[in-house]
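Dear colleagues,

As part of the handover before I leave the project, I'm documenting each prediction I ran so the next person doesn't have to rerun anything. This entry is a single chain, and its sequence is reproduced below.
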Amino acid sequence: MLLNLHDLDAGYGAKTVISGVSLALEPGQILALLGHNGAGKTTTLKAIMGLLPARAGSVHFDGHPINRLGVADRVATGIRLLPEGRGVFPDLNVADNIEVVAAQNVTGPSPMFRPADIYRLFPVLDERRTTRAGSMSGGQQQMLALSLAILGTPRCLLLDEPSIGLAPNLVERLFEQFHTICKEHGVGAVLVEQNVAAALKIADRVVIMNSGRIVFDGLPDDARKENVWDYF
């Protein structure tokens, strides 16, 4: 098991947002975490990443408890978060964005993704190395954001609404690349996404949250039979 959450509670201030959240993720598996706005999806990602402390329950990664690890230590284990919005340095060009993150994350004798690998995976970024990131289209910025998340040796990707603001054809291309990364390199992923149809196309498992709790955990086909849109 790559990632395991057991009876996890987390929240902000005096408010508990998620309660008793339990889920498991295998290497190379894509788990779509779905639900209406405010259901607790982003809070769950932040608790996994260490941005919010667990109030109860546990987070295990690769069989080891990580509740007490800080964000930097969780990144070092291979957990990476692609936050909602464009997770790039807008005033730096593409090459500088990649080099800044590579200096921190591309370590060890055999990193999974070096800058050269990024340019092969995303040719449009190779063409725009000297372009200021903030001036690129939303789709190109999201490709760059995904690239920054995978630099080095990612083992678990946490993606928060990566399709926001993108045209349908760009969403399809981005998700195809994301799917390839997970399946060819054994990277597990938790995908929070409002575009339910796009998420179900690439997901191996579906978890639906409602009011901070998990109300469905199963296969995409079963989720369709359950009519997942009733939860939105």
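The beta strands are 3-12, 15-25, 30-35, 56-61, 64-65, 79-82, 156-160, 188-192, 205-210, 213-218. The first strand starts at residue 3 and ends at 12.

All the best with the project,
I.
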